[in-house]
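ARCHIVE CARD
CATEGORY: sequence design from structure
SOURCE FIELD: tokenized fold
FIELD CONTENT:
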């Protein structure tokens, strides 16, 4: 329903940045090879080095093309790309002096990237791979005299300069892996909290807009309803005085009068409920009785519905304070089930000291896959009737009290709705 937060851990964006970094590094290495061959005249296996660089460049190009496809980029794929960089740099260093090559410090770059963008496990594996490559390059490499430190000899032993470089690398690796990983983790958590805060703020703004619209509509409907009621009364009296015998017309006028009266009653109840919600209701009420009242009201609104209702409870005397708007939220979901299929609805109500759970199963057409992400948005409905506010208001109300609504398509057909409301119940 909501877009995923963009941040340090978005694999697709991170892979794009990695391709850019790799392209710049490849350009720099090609230039370095050219300077080493034509100006410094170093004795290096240039053919092998160019083959490695070209292969890495081809992989970079293919990965760039792959990003144009709709396939999702996973953390595992991004981790594999970092491993490829480490192995490629390790091979280049093997053919150009090993640990004595000044480019050895580039091994820290994949470590920093992994620590800042991937899960801690992948960050630690990247650090271990880089440390293993550095350690192997201390002993196994093609020596380049011009790159070796003074008094260095290619033998089974290494001098203090090489040992110091290795220790510096290991310490840097540990520090980067530990501190950057923790910092990245904290940034992700803060970003998640910020994203949730923005979602809550947007939902509150939408609720305020809906509440303002409802209040204005209720006020504006009062006048035309009063006018209609007066006109219907006058028409009924006029036909009665003139002794016009039209039973069908009189019946229609009576029905219209009843409907107008019903609309007026709904508006009055709306205002009364709004006024009652201004005060905090801390009164305990029996949860089972609360649920039974909701079901009775649902049957009254949907007289043709048939449903099996089963209570799952540890104690029928469990009581807790429940807001008035919660009942309306549950009723809205029940009405959706009745609209989908009014027969053979199954309702399971689980009452415990910690929470109230409703599971509602209908045998309707279910939820179209292409509409799943839009459900719960204001003014969106997959039904021919309604304004698309029922599920939005229900979800917003339950979220306000740390509750939740989840909808699933059933394998046998229909929809499964799960509502959960946590509370601190008491047994009376």
């Amino acid at each position: 329903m909501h877009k995923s937060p963009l941040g340090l851990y978005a694999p697709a964006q991170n892979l794009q940045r990695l391709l850019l970094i790799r392209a710049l590094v490849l350009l720099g290495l090609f230039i370095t090879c050219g300077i080493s061959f034509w100006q410094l005249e170093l004795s290096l296996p240039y053919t092998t080095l160019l083959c490695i660089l070209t292969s890495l460049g081809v992989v970079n190009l293919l990965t760039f093309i792959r990003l144009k496809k709709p396939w999702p980029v996973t953390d595992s794929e991004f981790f594999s790309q970092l491993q490829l960089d480490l192995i490629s740099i390790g091979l280049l260093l093997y053919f150009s002096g090993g640990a004595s090559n000044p480019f050895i410090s580039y091994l820290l770059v994949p470590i920093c990237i992994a620590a800042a963008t991937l899960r801690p496990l992948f960050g630690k594996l990247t650090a271990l791979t880089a440390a293993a490559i550095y350690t192997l390059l201390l002993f196994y490499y093609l020596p380049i005299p011009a790159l070796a430190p003074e008094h260095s000899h290619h033998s089974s032993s290494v001098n203090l300069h090489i040992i110091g470089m290795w220790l510096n690398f290991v310490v840097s690796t540990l520090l980067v892996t530990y501190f950057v990983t923790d910092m990245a983790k904290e940034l992700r958590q803060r970003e998640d909290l910020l994203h949730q805060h923005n979602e809550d703020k947007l939902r509150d703004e939408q609720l305020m807009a809906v509440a303002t619209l409802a209040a204005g509509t209720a006020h504006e409907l009062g006048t035309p309803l009063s006018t209609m009621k007066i006109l219907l009364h006058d028409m009924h009296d006029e036909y009665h005085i003139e002794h016009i015998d039209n039973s069908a017309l009189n019946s229609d006028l009576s029905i219209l009068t009843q409907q107008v009266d019903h609309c007026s009653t709904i508006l009055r109840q709306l205002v009364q409920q709004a006024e009652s919600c201004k005060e905090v209701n801390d009164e305990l009420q029996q949860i089972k009785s609360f649920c039974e009242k909701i079901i009775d009201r649902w049957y009254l609104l949907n007289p043709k519905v048939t449903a099996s209702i089963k209570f799952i409870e540890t104690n029928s005397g469990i009581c807790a304070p429940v807001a008035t708007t919660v009942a309306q939220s549950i009723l809205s979901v029940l009405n959706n089930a009745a609209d989908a299929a009014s027969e053979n609805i199954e309702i399971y109500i689980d009452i415990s000291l910690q929470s109230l759970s409703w599971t509602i199963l209908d045998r309707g057409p279910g939820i179209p896959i292409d509409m799943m992400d839009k459900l719960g948005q204001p003014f969106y409905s997959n039904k021919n009737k309604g304004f698309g506010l029922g599920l939005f208001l229900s979800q917003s109300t339950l979220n306000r009290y740390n509750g939740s609504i989840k909808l699933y398509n059933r394998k046998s057909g229909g929809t499964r709705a799960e509502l959960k409301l946590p509370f601190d119940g008491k047994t009376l």
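CARD ANNOTATION: The domain at 285-427 is CATH 3.30.565.10 (Heat Shock Protein 90). The CA atoms of residues 95 and 142 lie 5 Å apart.
SHELF: design records, drawer C
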